[in-house]
Write the structure tokens for this entry.
Amino acid sequence: MVSALLVAVIILALIFDFINGFHDAANSIATIVSTKVLTPFQAVLWAASFNFIAYFLIKDHKVANTIAKTVFENFITMHVILAGLLAAITWNLITWWFGIPSSSSHTLIGGFAGAGMTNAAFMHVNPFSAINYDPIIKIVIFIFLAPIIGMIIGMAINILIMNICRNARPSVAEVWFKRLQLVSSGALSFAHGGNDAQKVMGIIYVALVASKVITNGTVMPEWIPFACYSAIAAGTMSGGWKIVKTMGTKITKVTPLEGVSAETAGAITLFATEHFGIPVSTTHTITGSIIGVGLTKRVSAVRWGVTINLIWAWVLTIPVSALVAAAVFSIIQLF
């Protein structure tokens, strides 16, 4: 039976998905806007379209399955899911307000895990027994691996392109790279939709199981992916302009050639991790890719002060989200 609480949780999950879209819009459009290939409105429309196209082509939902398994089923209640979502939304809005490109994926995982651990404590059970360490360890490892992989691939692609095109006329090359940026930005937006929408799909699926609307192992109802891809595309359409500035200009100055390299590297990394069902941060990945293309010019081309601040935000996202979720869950238990 569908309860009011379940409806509220689904609505909150889709709100988080929408916020994820405008929070992470910068990942797909920052370089294409900073290089003036598209206007901001054209860029978000382009990115949102590819976010949604992923709904028709990605059907395996491996990332959603990983998210659903981060907390063991016997510690999952509707209050756990509610607290996790509220914590994730809070941290996403705070980082958006300050223009910090943090990970929407990790704030959701941190919130969900933190609420599950707090529920275990209320049950007088070891809080850490609520956590499924296999997916959590993979997620934590890829906090550091995803940007490094993106950086290495970004450097390799940029060096390869520069060597292939070293005899090309600069004016002709720039025209072609601006055209290619449409392709690379579209690929990154497609990968972003396929990766990030699945995280909310996993949470909604868990909510349906916890409410006994469906049993665990049931095929995911088709309306869930449709709603999640729609929400993230709508969020991308609204844009996250503060974070666009950080991603497009503050890390390093990006040319059309470098934009193609960074976006292609980010897309390749996301496609690979999605194939293996690993929920990685789109933000971390594209940031690493942008740093990689900056390094092909010189080390000083990267503004390391900005980069270090971003890394601190990445490291703090999961634990802070977990603590906020723990506080929210404890408050909910009072009522």
